[in-house]
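User: quick one - fold this with FE2/S2 (inorganic) cluster bound?
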Amino acid sequence: MSAGGTNPFAPGFYEGNRPRVVTSRFGLEDSHTIERYLATGGYDGLRRALGRAASEVHEEVKSATILGRGGAGFPAGNKWGLTPAGVWPRYLVVNGDESEPGTYKDRLLMERDPHQLIEGCLIACYAAGLSQCFLYIRGEMALAQERVAKALNDAYAAGYIGRNIMGSRFSVDIVLHWGAGAYVVGEETALIESLEGNRGMPRLKPPYFPAAVGLYGKPTIVNNVETLSNLPWLMVNGSAAYTAIGTATSPGTRMVAVSGHVKRPGVYEIVNGTTTFRDLLFGEEFCGGMREGRTLKAFVPGGGSAPWFLPDQLDLPFEASQVGPAGSMLGSGAVMVMDDTTDIPRAALTLTRFYAHESCGKCTPCREGGTWLERILSRIVDGKGTDADLDQLLEVGGSICPGSFPHASSEALGIPAVPFPYRMNTICFVGPSAYVPVHSALTLFRSEFESRVTRRVRIPVTAAGGGE
Amino acid sequence: MARLSDENTKLAREIIARYPKPRSAMIPLLHLAQEQDGWVTEDAMAHIGELVGATPAEVYGTASFYEMFKFHPVGKYVINICGTMSCALMGAEDLMHHAEQKLGVRMGGTTEDGMFTLERAECQAACTEAPCLQTNYRFSFRVTNESFDSLVDDLRAGRLDNEVPSHGTVARVRQSIPPDRQAGIHPPDEVRDAPEWFDGRPAL
Amino acid sequence: MSTGTDGTGTENEVPSDPNAVSITVNGRAVTARKGEMIIAATDREGEYVPRFCYHPRMSPVGMCRQCMVEVDGPRGPMMVVSCMTPVAEGQVVRTDTEQVKRAQEGMIELLLANHPLDCPVCDKGGECPLQDQAFSHGPGESRFVEEKRHYEKPIPISDLVFLDRERCILCDRCTRFAREVAGDPLISFTQRGNNTQVMTFPDEPFSSYFSGNTVQICPVGALTAQPYRFKARPWDLEQRESTCTTCSVGCRVVVQSSRDEIVRYQGVDSDPVNWGWLCDRGRFDFQAVNSANRLEKPMVRVNGTLTETSWTAALDAVARAMRESAGSVAVLGGARGTNEDAFMWARLADAVGSTMTDAQLDDGLPASVFGLPQATIDSACASSTVVLLAPDLKEELPVLHIRLRDAAAHRGVRIIEVASHESGLTAHAWKSVLCEPGTQQDVVRSLLSDPTVRAQVGSGPVTVVAGRPNLAESASFTVAAVHEVLSAAPSARVLPVLRRGNVRGALSVGLAPRAGNDAAAILDAASHGKVGCLVLLGADPLTDVPDAGLARRAVSGARFVVAVDTFLSGSAQQADVVLPAAAFGEKEGTTTNLEGRVSNVVQKITPRGTSRADWMVAAELMRLLGQDSGVTTLAQVQQMMSSSLGSFGAAVVSPDARRNGVLASSPPAPPAPAGAGAVPRNSYDFRLVVSRRLYDGAAGTANSPSLAGLAPGASVTLHPLDAERIGASEGSTVTVSASGQGVRLPVLCSGAVPRGVALVPFNQPGDDIRSLVSRGSDVTDVRIEAK
Ligand SMILES: Cc1cc2nc3c(=O)[nH]c(=O)nc-3n(C[C@H](O)[C@H](O)[C@H](O)COP(=O)(O)O)c2cc1C
Ligand code: SF4
Ligand code: FES
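Assistant: Sure. Structure tokens for the protein plus FE2/S2 (inorganic) cluster:
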């Protein structure tokens, strides 16, 4: 394949000479074995952590401000601090349910460097006083499950997990758990429901969050795989070294998957805060530009749930404080690129169909609205839509997310950006996410819809007659 | 059809013992049942209910929420072709069309010989390798019509028997915690205090 | 047309200062209660917020998203669900903004998107929250032109309930009720997203004793009750609030009728009693009131056969018999009627100098239990320890079971159970000891000698729930065990759980044993020809007295038998005179529940045929006997009661008897006799336990077509190892015998009974176990052979 060539052991991964915090071993064929891991400084971070007081380790993580990589971007150290004092036990649940459209990184981290993740879990447990860890891997990830299972078995045998870890007083169990196919289970409260053996329906009850009331009603830290994989490096190199990479507000690196119409779709560990979307999409050491003779039409900056960007936004860096006001979010580090050949309504449909299909069914707007959006959209795509359907799409969207909805600015259309986030009538973000692509596509490419639909006057159908 | 075999029941008890509450083992046990029979039978669900302390209705309620569990027999190989955005942008629709032609079944259908079940799937976390598919949850990347055909031929000829177990088996490696290494699992309500190592002093 | 299941339960509580929270609702300053959800506060303020999934008696799920309101937040006003957002100091809530209106309309439109809108043919039409709120808070039109969801039209999910998944709006009310309140999670959401649907497991019906409640709380017509389907339309229903007298919990209900026929009961949320819930037996046995088998005319025995006659002739015959048997008139029963009925019959007994009255049939506890410090349902549920020395409450007093289950499962009350087989509460018990009949006292003693148990019992208020767990053992064992607890926890209170509807009322107003003559003594006297006139006041000794032989000898031994009843019971068939009685819903009055709560029952339809209220019959007889009480109206009866019965009488006439009822203390009873000690097992193999099931041969059930089929039938349950030992197996038939008598019963194997115990349900279709029960022995030991 083209320049550099994708990594033979980590399909889709490109190295390049950049700081590598979590992917340093990806180039080694046997990176997933405990032998290789130990031979390359494995479990040193844990040894150093155990040599210090838990509170110090926690402080170290705090000062590094490792932004959560699961989508919400909440600093890990601070999250650990949210557990109520004196309530025990506390649990760690590792979110390895990676299923956000466009997202491809956690699977690699689990397949290529399972021990790094395990070491990260142990450090987190030690720092925050968590007495059991559940490593929840997405059900469809057979290889990741096998690699992590093997790694856990080896680590237990070698004394890195379980009773008196590395001969210390520290003891904790890590249990491998796996799902069975439901995107919404990635949402942390749904993840906990699922781990309790229930239907994976979010149970968000403000003001309670998992850190206060989580698994079995006990304080529970939910962290993403990539987030935790940063910890071993941090323990060895220190927070100063970590914050030296990237910017003050977005330190360190992050893994980003770029998919779609670029020359070199792939997974890259990029420097947080400074790298721009232009670097990533057009830089030679990254995707190397659009496919031959094609131009950029639009791109999704942060996973299927993120409002779309236009070429206008290319110079934004991976920095939440700049992407938010521009009308979208960085989310889960997934960029999906559309070139000028893209059929926009159809592209939007593939995402809306996804979220409608993945609704857990709890919230009326998501369950009914999501499907309704999908039905209208596919009618339009099939050329059976009317102009009334376009307004209807926005009407239904309004029932999912009240008020103004974020979108990018467009010089060509002469519209300013509406900043992220949106207001919502649902419990979690699946409902709104079904509307995101519809709204972005319709706002930024309305003409492509209008050319698809026939003008027709709408005949309203009156509602609930009801007996009389 | 079948409740869990004695051997699997033993395994089930082992899995249950890893959790502070038995019910947490529900999904792993459903996988175990599917591994045993290729799909999840009513008897197995009833049995799992007995093992984790739930009614069959609750077990079915949980099981039917999740994509992977099948409640009727499916092919030896379930081929999931991803149709979400990145894959769609890279031609997933055409691939699906070709697959239907090649196997002679519509999406969701199973071939006469019971070898293949074809399904449209959602994002499989391989977006950069689009279009992609999974055969019993084993990946194929940047799939072309040709590579799809040879995949099917290889599976039919049994050339991939070592890579791809028949439907029901996901991971072929299981976690097993040596009793002497286990830190100890306790019902959440029986734990009152912080772990003794969490006392402000270094653990090492 | 609200039947009270929403809201009313939380209304009468007033916020107490320490946990008062000040918020503003639509600009108005409001005091809310700490921890409550916004919707509870707005309800109290009369600011109605539309809702579907919210139910004040269940935990919030925020599923329908209909109850959106606006709350000022850090980033300006936010939309929140009022059913899951707790009130907070200084919170600014708006229920009336454009945003809110828009959200509510949007939600209705989405809910209607897949709703069939078949209101004209729907049982719920006219009383449907979805329909009502579609009018009050809906957009007025639907723009949904896509194909709607389709499911097979109504499917039976149990013998009593039908489910129409097309109408379902997935509010999680029925499923939450089954899981959280009833503890029978036999229905569950299945599938996901837009395909989510409520279902049972294949071939495992929603056979819960409480299934009818799901029909009542369903906010659409998705769940319908077989006994009510297509019976009436809400707009031609009339209703009055009353009290269920099927058992002694005394749940508040509304009795609904159409064209002078009772068509439905709905639970009313009475805070101290039933919280809006009913059991299916109480909910559906109105069918018996409408039964074609009801007695309509008096009958007298003319040369051997009962022949219809006039009231005058029948009453003359009774009066003559009473006059002739001066001093030897006995009155058994009265627990089925009102306080007023029992009161007038007690006065009649006085008038004829009777020393033989008892409202129980040797199947309860000595009335002396009322002499012990009394608990209430609420106080029991608020105590720290509940000691169960009772039958399976789920089978006998279902809604009390629900209250105690809630207390144990959600409020940290610890239950200590001592029984001869597992009960519906065993799963929630802190400690449950299964013991052989007769050994209760010893078991309790050794339990209380355990330090942890003593610590628990000493940790706070203790309630002893005392009933008759086994009709094949003497009540004295339970009484002895109760005293054992009282001696260890002197401040403990007792909640007597006697099953019959108004048994406590009847005993309290004068139909209690006199001069030590309880039912057993009376029956014994009768069997020796010492009873001149035996009045069976809604009592059927031949079916209900545990010692069948004694009952048979008594009924045939009494010189003259009068049956006052709604049906021609087994005993009534033997009577010399049968008088048709007005049934529940056909007469006014008051009733008394197991905790001594007096509340009213109402007349909704005209009495069947020529039947009359029991009190009228008594008054008429007194006149004929020349002892006219002068009463001709119910009001006069209640006047007499209030002047002669102290606090009890006051309760009867109190207006509160028309709402949640009034607690009345019963007249002081003689101290309970210290009960018998354990009885050594004789040479026989098994010790017999005969206990009631919810559905049995009782008239109310047998004459309600939809319930009649639910009686499980006679059987004997053995521990699997015992069954194996005698060569029996599940389903095989065995002979259970004692003292020459034998019955043939099918075997059930279950670990729910301890070894050495044989459990047989009472009054079931099949061989009658009572032929083995003899009053002579305190326990019943039987031999069981697999031949
Ligand atoms: C619908 C939905 C899906 C999500 N899916 C994932 C996921 O697949 N993996 C993940 O790590 N976080 C996911 N999240 C975010 C989690 O809720 C949670 O914020 C995250 O796991 C916290 O870990 P972090 O703080 O390390 O990022 C999802 C959130 C939502 C609302
Ligand atoms: S928004 Fe959708 S997925 Fe999320 S909780 Fe509501 S119904 Fe479930
Ligand atoms: S969109 Fe196909 S794997 Fe992600």
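One thing worth noting: Chain B is about 35% helix and 10% strand.
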